[in-house]
Design a protein that fits this description.
Elements: E1 4-7, E2 25-26, H1 35-49, E3 52-57, H2 62-75, E4 80-85, H3 89-103, H4 109-120, E5 124-129, E6 155-160, E7 164-167, E8 182-186, H5 193-203, E9 208-210, H6 217-221, E10 226-232, H7 236-244, E11 249-250, E12 257-258, H8 275-288
Parallel strand pairs: 1-2, 1-3, 3-4, 8-9
Antiparallel strand pairs: 5-6, 5-10, 6-7, 8-10, 11-12
């Protein structure tokens, strides 16, 4: 049975792009489930799947995040990974879908959990906004309107990998991926033609996937007048190749195999090379060598 992928909202579970992609388990918020039930639910997930990877947005209410950590602590389990995502809502959902795809592969739990940080760097997540005047989650400067020095008009925003904001009717375009992607987009109250036409053509996407707008998108982008989008690698074989080419090593704390610089399950950083003991041993051997001193 695949490693379980769990999320904190049903909006983070997008339709699969192929028939082999497993689903994801949607956890209940504290106001909808008491602690005892949450404990039993998570314990059952661990028992059935062996390991559970929980992906949640960094905007998740603190009470919910605290409950996740409390459940993990009560179960005394190092088989539960709690991974925050700073991507916008739709970008996080696309990342979850990629993890679901890879969960059906032969990756170890530590490698699969650590791959979330790697994959997030290759998701181009943004939105077309009626106005960017209240945008505060993306560190960009609002472009002026028709050279008047005043902000205004529709803006296209890229939250990651590199934040960028341009006027939708201007000559400057959003920096897109230099690899093959499909574009998942959530139509809002704005027309989607700019996203499905101009942006899709500029980014040379290989397919378009419309999905419902996540409930948290309006709050994340500080406006309800938007079209959210995320371009990402859809092919599980390419995702598998990307992850498998990363250097793997054992976590010095929990023993799981991992990639990157931190274990997804116990949060321990990769241990630095043990250079000091080797240096001391070398000096000692030199001191004991015949004729030394």
């Amino acid at each position: 049975m695949p490693i379980a992928i769990a999320v904190t909202s049903a909006d983070l579970v997008l339709p699969p792009t192929d028939q082999h992609t497993p689903g994801a388990h949607v956890l209940n918020a504290p106001e909808r489930q008491d602690f005892t039930a949450a404990l039993a639910e998570t314990s059952d997930l661990v028992g059935r799947h062996g390991h559970v990877i929980v992906l949640y947005p960094t905007t998740t209410p603190l009470s919910y995040v605290q409950r996740l950590h409390a459940v993990r602590a009560m179960l005394e389990s190092d088989r539960i990974a709690l991974l925050p995502s700073a991507l916008p809502p739709l970008g996080t959902a696309v990342l979850v879908r990629q993890l679901r795809q890879l969960s059906a592969c032969d990756f170890s739990p530590g490698v699969l959990g650590a791959s979330a940080r790697l994959l997030a760097h290759y998701i181009y997540a943004g939105a077309l906004l009626a106005s960017g005047s209240r945008l505060h989650r993306v560190p960009v400067t609002l472009p002026t309107h028709n050279g008047s020095g005043r902000p205004g008009g529709q803006c296209a925003v890229l939250a990651g990998p590199t934040p960028q904001l341009v006027r939708a009717d201007g000559d400057v375009t959003l920096a897109g991926p230099q690899f093959s992607t499909t574009l998942t987009y959530a139509p809002g109250t704005l027309g989607s033609e700019w996203v499905t036409g101009r942006l899709a053509e500029q980014w040379q996407v290989q397919g378009l996937h419309p999905v419902p707008m996540p409930a948290e998108s309006a709050a994340w982008w500080a406006t309800g007048k938007l079209v959210e989008f995320a371009a990402a690698i859809p092919d599980v074989s390419l995702l598998y190749q990307m992850v498998s080419q990363m250097r793997q090593e054992a976590c010095h704390w929990c023993g799981l195999t991992l990639i990157g610089d931190r274990c997804a399950f116990c949060s321990a950083p990769v241990a630095p090379p043990e250079r000091a003991p080797r240096a001391i041993g070398t000096q000692r051997r030199k001191a004991l060598a015949p004729g030394a001193g």
